[in-house]
């Protein structure tokens, strides 16, 4: 299977040329187990230019937060990225691992069904029964593989894991080794090993992280985009990147389309209009930046598949209806009030979108 047949390439393959250019131009000291210096990792994440290669920004936000995250990984501390949904926690985690190790695929996805074995190791039970415990029968977790190679493992949505699963990380992060009593051995971590975990603030209280586990991490809080322009830039950049890997057969959304989506999302998130002149009923959903990106990609798909390739008000309205109205009783009322009290009064520029949304909401 070629790269063009893969639905989603890992960051190290998608941005291979940029990574190679940074490695080739490296002049600063490179930490053990890393492929480039901390300065080069920052350039890869935040954007810049090296030689004749333009480095596209992967994270649009406070550069100092990126520097703190990179500096954490130079030490023996693990990194915990916390934020609202859509603040690019997973995106930043993936790109940090891609830049530092050239491998962002050692990932554990935290869910209610994640087990301790997925953090440590498990067994091929057919081989275990026929041969007994052996290295060949052992199934190493991404964390154990990262320890052996001195690289980074990623744990996504750590607060969705049960407390006993979270606790399995405490000894690993403290002792930097995994005991395998069945084989009478220990697997020590090579220099360069670390863990990047992400946690969603909306999941606070699902499986609250213990103080003991939090102490093993340096915590970086990723804020939501500070203003409309920042959010629009993030959305525009990510839509362009995602559309490049999909056969949408549509033009990228125009600036006013991106502005309308971001305006609606910010107002329904905050419960007031951007100029703070009027209160609105807030939606129950998150309406994150990530959802705005998904909405616009879906609108492009509608425009490319059933239109002329240019996003229309009807394409946009279809995505907005599904994004906003998560709970019919509460969100349906909030959306109806927003349409009648806010969007309707914004004049001719919004009239077409208002009518399209109204038709779907009836």
Structural features, described:
The chain is α/β, with parallel strands linked by helices. It folds into 2 domains: 3-222, 3-Layer(aba) Sandwich (Rossmann fold), CATH 3.40.50.300; 228-361. 48% of the residues lie in helices and 13% in strands. The protein is built from 16 helices and 11 strands. The protein has helices at residues 11-14, 16-24, 38-46, 63-74, 89-101, 116-119, 125-131, 142-149, 163-175, 211-214, 228-244, 255-270, 289-306, 313-324, 328-341, 348-361, and strands at 48-50, 53-55, 78-83, 107-109, 121-123, 138-140, 152-156, 177-180, 185-188, 194-200, 217-222. The strands form 4 sheets. A 5-stranded parallel beta sheet has the order 4-7-10-3-11. Strands 1-2 form a two-stranded antiparallel ribbon. The longest helix is centred in the last third of the chain and has 18 residues, at 289-306.
Question: What descriptors fit this protein?
Answer:
362 residues; 13% strand; 2 domains; single chain; Rossmann fold; 5-stranded parallel β-sheet
